[in-house]
């Protein structure tokens, strides 16, 4: 299926202006009924589909990204619907999303600051279910000044308040230049460093207790190989 090669006009109104290029934040991208449905589907996945990591557990759908190419597997219908919706917004420069990570975080769980790296088309799109979170951004370690090592605190740049049912799209500098992470805390206190407060609906000084959050991280892996191509070699 062909998708628009550029971000659609309707998405452009959701650009977060106070962040480096480019962040799109779409509140209420899905309805409460869709949220409920997606949470049920995540729950219904067979137990071995889950990988327990320190601070979260995850499901991987679509295949395992690999430098030599991902052995692509068809996405289940419940993920395909939303992947197609996001691809139709032009998020992946004309390509279709083919990979989804489902992360589940309980209160006090999180993910260390990291980069998503070169195996993905440099756009990450995330639907949040069940709870909000704060996504924090950091300059990378090799952007040290005068060879002085920097602390996580001094590398901290800004945060995005990501509400349940929202869609977040990160690309450009926000994908390639900065690290992102989620602190393992039970509640988030909003500060002036949360740059999308006006659109996400929050006040500086407000404290939001976290519930269990499930995120769907939907991406495009450009390099894939298909099993039947390999088998047909000889
Ligand atoms: O849960 C999220 O929104 C972030 C997940 C993430 O950064 C990742 O899986 O690479
Ligand atoms: Fe990530």
Automatic annotation (TrEMBL):
<protein>
    <submittedName>
        <fullName>AlkB homolog 6</fullName>
    </submittedName>
</protein>
<keyword id="KW-0560">Oxidoreductase</keyword>
<dbReference type="InterPro" id="IPR005123">
    <property type="entry name" value="Oxoglu/Fe-dep_dioxygenase_dom"/>
</dbReference>
<comment type="similarity">
    <text>Belongs to the alkB family.</text>
</comment>
<dbReference type="InterPro" id="IPR027450">
    <property type="entry name" value="AlkB-like"/>
</dbReference>
<keyword id="KW-0539">Nucleus</keyword>
<dbReference type="GO" id="GO:0005634">
    <property type="term" value="C:nucleus"/>
</dbReference>
<dbReference type="InterPro" id="IPR032862">
    <property type="entry name" value="ALKBH6"/>
</dbReference>
<dbReference type="GO" id="GO:0051213">
    <property type="term" value="F:dioxygenase activity"/>
</dbReference>
<keyword id="KW-0479">Metal-binding</keyword>
<keyword id="KW-0223">Dioxygenase</keyword>
<keyword id="KW-0408">Iron</keyword>
<dbReference type="InterPro" id="IPR037151">
    <property type="entry name" value="AlkB-like_sf"/>
</dbReference>
<dbReference type="GO" id="GO:0046872">
    <property type="term" value="F:metal ion binding"/>
</dbReference>
<feature type="domain" description="Fe2OG dioxygenase">
    <location>
        <begin position="96"/>
        <end position="222"/>
    </location>
</feature>
<dbReference type="Pfam" id="PF13532">
    <property type="entry name" value="2OG-FeII_Oxy_2"/>
</dbReference>
């Amino acid at each position: 299926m062909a998708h628009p090669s550029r971000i659609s006009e309707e998405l452009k109104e959701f650009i977060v202006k106070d962040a480096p290029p480019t962040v799109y934040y779409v509140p209420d991208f899905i309805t409460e009924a869709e949220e409920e449905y997606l949470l049920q589907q995540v729950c219904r996945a067979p137990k071995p589909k889950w990988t327990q990591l320190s601070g979260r557990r995850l499901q991987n759908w679509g295949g395992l990204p690999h430098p030599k190419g991902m052995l692509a597997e068809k996405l289940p219908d419940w993920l395909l619907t939303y992947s197609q919706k996001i691809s139709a917004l032009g998020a992946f420069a004309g390509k279709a999303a083919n990979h989804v990570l489902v992360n589940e975080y309980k209160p006090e769980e999180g993910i260390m600051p990291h980069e998503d790296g070169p195996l993905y088309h440099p756009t990450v799109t995330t639907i949040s279910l069940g709870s909000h979170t704060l996504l924090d951004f950091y300059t990378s370690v090799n952007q040290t000044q005068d060879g002085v090592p920097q602390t996580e605190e001094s590398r901290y740049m800004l945060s995005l308040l990501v509400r349940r049912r929202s869609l977040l799209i990160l690309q450009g500098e926000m994908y390639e230049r900065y690290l992102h992470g989620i602190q393992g805390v039970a509640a988030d206190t909003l500060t002036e460093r949360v740059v999308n407060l006006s659109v996400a609906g929050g006040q500086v000084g407000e404290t939001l207790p976290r519930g269990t959050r499930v995120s769907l991280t939907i991406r495009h892996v450009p390099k894939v190989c298909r099993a039947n191509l390999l088998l047909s070699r000889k």
